[in-house]
Amino acid sequence: MTTDPYDIASIPPTLGAVVEAERGSLPFALIHGEGLVACAAWALGEAGITPIDHGTSWAALIESGEPLVLHDALCPMTPAAFLADCVRVSEERSAVVVAVRPVTDTVKQVEDGYVGATIDRDALVVVTSPIVLPAVVVASLDGLSSYDFATLAGQLAARFPVVTLEAPPAGRRVASLDDVRLLEALTRPA
């Protein structure tokens, strides 16, 4: 019997949004016969996070006094239990939580058009999903400055405490239909 490393237990009342803006048509590609955006939305609900629609004003988010989970439609198979765990860590540490995955590709320096030394990838991460904003951070913002999670994570880190959590392999980001097929194979039910 395989045990899920993340236990879904009750989390504080939390709002969540699936971010699909500025991602082209890929969020509407199918994985296991369902749209990526739908899979991401279902994970929010399974985690006990109340989904909001795109018409919700930032003022309403502030007024709710609840944390906000930003879940990227391009990370559609992120387990609900991991989303819930990110909310708990954000609450416990009063910090923004940013999910990351290790860098597995070789990364080289480029200087004056020439390929140089290999960069130690142990010091690098890829931002995935979710990004969890505690209620105090939501109240400090006028809205999102970027829908690009890596850019947003950097901007938030400049202003607020940030904790990174390693997302499970199913939480990887897709960038193409080939990536979707790979993720589908990785997450195929046994």
UniProtKB/TrEMBL annotation:
It holds the Pfam family IspD. It comes from the Bacteria. InterPro entries: IspD/TarI, Nucleotide-diphossugar_trans. Gene3D superfamilies: Spore Coat Polysaccharide Biosynthesis Protein SpsA, Chain A. Keywords: Nucleotidyltransferase, Transferase. This is 2-C-methyl-D-erythritol 4-phosphate cytidylyltransferase.
